[in-house]
Amino acid sequence: MKDVALKMIDRAKQLLESGEVARVIGWKKGDFCYDPTPAAFETVEELKDFVYDYFCGANLSKYLIQMSKKEGKTAVFLKPCDTYSFNQLIKEHRIKRENVYVIAVECLGKLDIEKIKAQGISFVTGVEVVEKDVKVFTADGETTLYKPDVVLSKCATCTKTHQVKDEEIILHERPAKDVNRFEEVEKLEAMTEEERFAFWREQLSKCIRCNACRNVCPACSCLKCVFDNPSSGVAAKANDDKFEEQLFHIIRAFHVAGRCTDCGECSRVCPQNIPLHLLNRKFIKDIDNLYGEYQAGETDEGKTPLTSYTESDAEPKDVFNGEAK
Amino acid sequence: MQEVTTEKKEFVPNIVAFCCNWCSYAGADLAGSSRLTYPANVKIIRVPCSCRVNPMFVLKAFQQGADGVILCGCHPGDCHYVTGNYYTRRRMALLYSFLNYMGIEKDRTRVEWVSAAEGAKFSAVMNDFVKTVTELGENKRLTDLRVKEGE
Prior knowledge:
Chain A has helices spanning 2-18, 64-67, 80-91, 113-118, 147-150, 153-156, 183-189, 193-204, 212-216, 244-255, 265-269, 277-291, and strands at residues 23-28, 37-41, 50-51, 74-78, 100-105, 124-130, 133-138, 141-146, 167-169, 319-320, 323-324. Chain A is an alpha/beta fold.
């Protein structure tokens, strides 16, 4: 990953120096090795803080809504999953494509610091990844972990490939994966109603209504969000009403249904570790089953499943567990 | 002294029915003028088209104490606005399936197509829906998610 990062910095330098772009969006070094944050770099000097490593899980496509409207071109580094969000935003006319220069970068699966910490490891000072071994360096030594155990949940089932690129920086080919991303959804569907209700009550009662999932979601790009409208009845924070958290998550999942690219950012940013992607995946699975397979963001044109119909669609009463009778 | 009653009060569910102005609302009207009965606890809300029903309306109804929500519109193909109910059909199929995924009983939600000529169907549908929801009992799940068992 280090050689890729060096290439990226080189390329960013060239683009900024030649004046081809006015700014580059990438990841900036954080306080710790595991918290790089998305940032816009406008000068070559600023690039000294540029990083790209196994903790750069953030999806940069949403920042382009603002950045592509500024003067001059914006270069952006997009991982495979980010390019789906990018396409979806183009489709919704939120990004000015002509103002963006997309550099596709490789992603070999990003690590989840919470999962590393959960293994009893703290004071992480660095990581080194060799195939499926993650060497974690800490203040008092080093430990080797099995990579599939500590990747972000969005990376565990990812089979996405680059959909958009003006150029690419890819040095290592990603091994092909044979995974079923709906496995967890199917597990929930196989439960009884009581069990499912207990599961979601347990999970959603942890919600503190910080709105991080909404703010990070590339599909949540409305200028005026329903949750910011005080008269909607759902703008309030936790504890205002027992029902709020559930209502919030149902509405949010429904609003992004058919547009969610399954980028998994909602689960990554949730401070309470609620598996929010399981809500969106249910919609994706149902849409696939009922209206034909559909991957949002695969192209930047065409209709979404919820803005189209066929005369022979399944009746709501015949749909059970996502299958039409 | 006051008599202590041990008998349980019979449960009467609160039902909200969203009816489209052009077909189902007229169907309800026909049921009335044909002297066909349907339970008085069905509260009809008239909407211009079944497509007007935002999923939030359904959730809000449950939040405010409805025990069952039913949505009635023109038969697919007969929509006054040509295609409105086709969108409703997709939307509600997904919403109801999703609510069930979160553990809400599937029988609390329903979509039925009732035309202006189907007064008898309207009455039958409402009687059947009220019966189903009465058997399910009070809606607790969509109002008390944050209250843990035993609290």
